[in-house]
Amino acid sequence: MFKHFRELSIKNRQYLFFTVFFCMPLFILGLIWYAASTKEIENNVIYYNEKLISQLNNQLDQYFAEIKADTQIIPGNPLVQEFVKLEPGNDYEMFQFKERIHKELYLNIMYRRKDFVGFGLYSHKDNTFGNLFIGDIRPGFRDLQGIESNYHIVGIRQSNAYNVILIYRNIIDNVTYRSVGGLLIAFSLDTLVKMTDNIAFGKEGYIAIVDSSNRFIYHRDPSKWGAQVPMSLVHEMSPGSGQFVIQAETGKRIVMYKTSQSTGLTIVSEVPIKEVIGNLSHLHVITLIIGGMILIFAFIFFNKMLADIKRLIGIIHLSRMKEKEMELKHKESTLQALQSQINPHFLYNSLEIINSYAILAKIKPISQMTLSLASIFRYSVSNPRQLVLLEDEINHITNYLNIQQERYAKMRVTIDLEKRHLSLVCLFRLIVQPIVENAIIHGYERHGLHPADIVISGCMREEYYSLRVTDRGKGMDAGVVARYNAAFNSAKINTTDVSLHSSQKIGLWNVHNRLRLAFGAPYGLYIVRSDETGTEMEIKIPYTTSDCILFYKRGRSLD
Measured between alpha carbons, how far is 220 from 199 in angstroms, rounded to an integer? Predict the structure, then answer.
């Protein structure tokens, strides 16, 4: 196999790689995306439907808990207790009791609960009481005698074409504590209908409430109220909660259910999968079409790339020839650089001779200026990309200011730096001098002022060392300062949209760009203030232990 692959031309190899590593992965990823997105949508529908079912379940629990609390005192009511103990045969006394029950108990319940429809009493002595509504309810009282619970939801029943929910309560004798009868209470379905009307499960989906006898208490289709739940669903439902998928005539449907532990009612929701997925299948087809178009464009681009490869092969040969030519030119420039380093020795020797004559003539200012000038030249001609300690840079700027003080006799120089900090900070050569020159020229001389005060101070910050150069001349306009600082803080390098004097602009940007290009943010320049009382310029310099310094030293060592 590998032998046949090696025998293929470069073009055929490229086609093979394009098919195997681009077309096939794109097709497989499309299938995976469709399956994963479909599954994710189904999971989300199941999750939110479970939330809705739980919410509705809590509302039903609360509703039936209120019914239980409101009907709890009825079995123990004195009228009910006396009624179930009456012996049959006394029709007049029975009639009086029923009238009292109707006036004192029945009307009271109807006043307290708007959904109350009616109730009926039954004693073990075959005494019965009930309104016309209760008379039509099935099953009869005798069918409920086996229920041991004092509170039981019988389920939905129909009387006179009116659907109600029946609640059964056992009547216990207050003396013997034995069951002596039963109470059957009917409530309207309107409350349950209102609870479920605001919950939507799509156009074809529905939510239903099922009682313990697997009858629909509520269904979106009123004709199914009181009907039996299909056995296909009953067999799939286990106690508690869960979900499953069934195959219907209209397609697959997701069925979720949850049974309340307090009421025994089960809430069932059924949603068609096609509504869950929606237009995802159409989107899948559109995606495949778009993917095919991408492949076509990619194939066209691929052919163009092959043509470019052939052209680049020729360019590579030409570039190699140019590379050899550049190597020769580099060697020549290196030789010229070595020759240029020889020339400063002549200048140093000349300055030494001048210093010697000044010493012999006892002219101390000339001697000091000569020594300072020699130190400045020696420091300046060294590698400008070499990192030096702040101590070396301060020694250089001290020599520079000594010469300036000979020129400006009234100029006062203050260097307020802690000596222990000078060995903790490093920077490039000739960073501070352009800032000091800028202060002398643009702060004093440009405005016709004699250079007065130059203050160099510094302090340690958490992220950088703050070196500040301050003058007492005239500063810049607030708008110019704002544009400068905005450009200094910008992520772009070589920003030149600050309309100032060109020499000032070039000097500041050279210093800022050297620091920012080498070390990144936040290092560089920042104008702290500039007004009629002077300018304070901040130079943000890294510490010798900073990550940016260590990274820079990998290619350039610190002498």
Answer: 11
